[in-house]
Amino acid sequence: MSIRARIEGVGHAVPARILTNDELSTMVDTNDEWIFSRTGIRQRHIAGPEDTAFTLSLVAAQNALANSGVAAADLDLVIVGTVTGDMQFPSTSCLLQDALGATKAGAFDVGAACAGFIYSIANATAMIESGMAKHVLVVGVDLLTKIIDWTDRSTCVLFGDGAGAVVLSAVEGSDRGVLKSVLLSDGSGAKHIHNEVGGSRYPHGSPQAEGRCHSVYMNGNEVYRFAVQAIGDACLKVLAEAGMTPDQVDLFVPHQANIRIIESARERLNLPKEKVFVNVDRLGNTSAASIPIGLSEAAAQGVLKPGMIVLTVGFGAGLVWGANLIRW
Ligand code: UT7
Question: Ligand 1 center to residue 220 CA distance, Å?
Answer without folding.
Answer: 6
